[in-house]
Amino acid sequence: MRLQKLQESPLCEKLYCCPGNVGTALPWENISIGNNEEIVSFAKEYVDFVVVGPEKPLCEGIVDMLHKGNQGLCPRGRAQLEEARILRSSFWRNMTYPRPGTKQIFSYEEGVEALQDFSYPL
Question: Collapsing DSSP states into helix, strand and coil, what is residue 50?
Answer without folding.
Answer: strand
